[in-house]
């Protein structure tokens, strides 16, 4: 995004007053208005962090200042935090480290819908209908979707403890699961509509999409495909290189 590349250096400038002063001297050609405005930002930041009646979370303050500036621009300019960009990049990589379950929140706990075949949870013995009441040494009762994902995702090879309540059993069951690579497929469907027409649906463009598409295409050609319906409805985009490769 055009705005983001200029925003991240501003975080450093706001946080380091001395560096800002040096930079302002070096950028005299930017004009007096920019120098004045940057000094105003520096002064406000310094006064708030040094003289406010309570300790201030400087990181949160800086994030809020950036978002406030962007609200004055067009609706297509936005700031993505390191945590948010990590989540976006995870979706584009095509896989992540986790335990391999699909779940939904029922009442106040996460209920396992199904496990990914041959994934970590499947191998450990987790079953559909199991309710996750604990993760490691903490209660998972009251977790929302984000809480469950944050607790169960992690680096491949690390271990996570899960406490399960299983229908029909009186006592909870404890599992220790080693996180593995969990694939995120972008080709939702690939099949023959009739003797000559194939159908492929792609939900987004990730790093794996081109290869997934090629595999689906080869399979359908082997079944006699002469023409293709490529369904991109609700596809929000993603990695441009994958789309170029498909084309």
Describe this structure in words.
- The protein contains nine helices and eleven strands.
- The protein has helices at 4-15, 17-26, 32-51, 58-70, 82-93, 120-124, 145-152, 209-222, 240-246, and strands spanning 95-98, 101-106, 109-115, 131-135, 138-139, 159-165, 173-178, 180-183, 187-192, 197-202, 227-231.
- It is α+β, with helices and mostly antiparallel strands.
- Helix content is 41%, strand content 23%.
- Helix 1 (4-15) packs across helix 2 (17-26), helix 2 (17-26) packs antiparallel against helix 3 and helix 8 packs parallel to helix 9.
- Strands 2, 3, 4, 5, 6 and 7 form a six-stranded antiparallel sheet that branches.
Report the sheet-strand fraction: 15-25%
Task: Look at the helices and sheets and give the structural class.
Answer: alpha+beta
Query: What general outline do the C-alpha atoms trace?
Result: flat
- What gyration radius follows from the Cα positions, in whole Å? 25 Å
Count every beta strand, where a strand is a DSSP E run of 2 or more residues: 11
Mean pLDDT across all residues, rounded? 81
Helix content: 40-55%
The number of helical runs is 9
Largest sheet: 6 strands, antiparallel
Which residue ranges are poorly predicted, with pLDDT under 50 across at least 5 consecutive positions? 1-24
Order of helices and strands: HHHHHEEEHEEHEEEEEHEH
Distance between the termini: 24 Å
Features:
single chain, 247 residues, alpha+beta, 6-stranded antiparallel beta sheet, 3-stranded mixed beta sheet, 11 strands, 41% helix, disordered N terminus
Briefly say what this structure is:
This protein has nine helices and eleven strands. It has 247 residues and is of the alpha+beta class.
